[in-house]
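== Protein entry: sequence and backbone fold ==
=== Local backbone shapes as whole numbers ===
==== Amino acids and backbone structure tokens ====
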Amino acid sequence: MEHRQLGRSGLMVPVLSYGTATFGGKGEFFGRWGDTDVAEARRLVDICLEAGVNFFDTADVYSSGASESVLGAAIKDRRHDILLSSKATFTMGNGPNDRGSSRHHLIRACEASLRRLQTDHIDLYFMHGFDALTPVDEVLRALDDLITAGKIRYIGCSNFSGWHVMKSLAEAERRGFSRYVAYQGYYSLVGRDYEWELMPLALDQGLGTMVWSPLGWGRLTGKIRRGQPAKEGRIASGGAEGGPQVDDELLYDVVDVLEQVATEHDASIPQIALAWVLSRPGVANVVMGARTEEQLRANLKAAEIRLTPEQIARLDDVSRRQPTYPYWHQMGFDRNPKPTNW
């Protein structure tokens, strides 16, 4: 398994990590994603470790903590072999302080995650979203204190706007706090908005990109095809709720080219979609999901696929769409560095 440096940190991570949002199955929303129990989770963890994937990603909000609990039970006898990331910010209770990134909430959230995960530290701790109420210096100081206390090793942010990230990095530098080393964001062949601002920012500032939902919220599994009803799966069962909107014709065109490239590699459509994301500038890790052993083993093979420049160009061309302002205007300035072939 290939390993890449995570941003400017000294941490090396496998190019694939296993996302555990399917663990627990608690609540209507996450119940549609999966309901993996501890016994199943242990088996899936075994398969990952056998393939060299020792990085597991979760969040406190996944199944209201049940994902962390299941993962913690599945890895408790082999914690020293594993890299673990989790997240906080979103609502975990009914009180006014049971959400956000205040010092009060973050310290409590981190300690609760440690208990559920049955560990004394989290290797990479993400702010799951930007808290516009809490001052940035309060967030960073709380995270810095958690690092000093040995409860977390590195910090990252997820789902921030570009200016949210830059403000946080500038404040960390100004005050001497630990800085974010990673950005975890949505990026796929049917969702390339990440390239417009966040990718150039990550490349410029040395943030390692971790990609979530690289299969476009389940749309690039090969189950959705032109002129065919969606086959049984998360999308067909309503699991796309809350996800980004995708133009049907764009999706069908992308899947058509994915199928062509997959045939050339004797691979599957999702394997090629994952391989494309792994080929992008600044991507250190792709968070893959899988509800079954079969899906997991198939996704792991994506790390072995090397797309040719011509194949990447075909996938780029079919998935490209014009950016919103001001990014379309900036495309005319050739002296501006471009992270990808727009």
Notes: The two ends are 30 Å apart (CA to CA). Residues 169 and 205 are 8 Å apart (CA to CA).
